[in-house]
Prior knowledge:
CATH superfamily: Response regulator
Number of helices: 6
CATH topology: Rossmann fold
Largest sheet: 5 strands, parallel
Order of helices and strands: EHEHEHEHEHH
Helix content: 40-55%
Amino acid sequence: MQVIRTLIVDDNVSFRQRLKEFLASEPDIEVVGEAADGQTAILEARKLQPEVVVMDVTMPGMNGIDATRHLKDEMPEVKVIVLTIFDLEGYREAAMASGASGYVIKKSLIEELMPAIRRALAQDSATWARAKEEPNIRGGGRPAS
Length: 145
């Protein structure tokens, strides 16, 4: 079984801890680090080389959309799953444009985060198209090349 090295990025310390506990319950997930803002996320990703970054949108300093764009420019192989309270098409579109591989609403985290991570790693190029047709699916990103 391949272990998925994961970095958690969210400015809420208690939420990060709960998310870390949730992800640790998955046998194929290893949380390798945490960050509270976009700039720290980029530094930690350089150092820790995660396969997946779970990224909040609104944080102090550099937001998650800008951080995702920087990460994808610098580390195109990393998969970013945007995890946010905002169920807004504009945020979803901004996440997709920044290179995110998935978009999950925090209230649906338990049902949707692990499938989004696994879809991203499988590089399912049709997910964003399905997300527009099936509102319960939040994921996608750049088509596989």
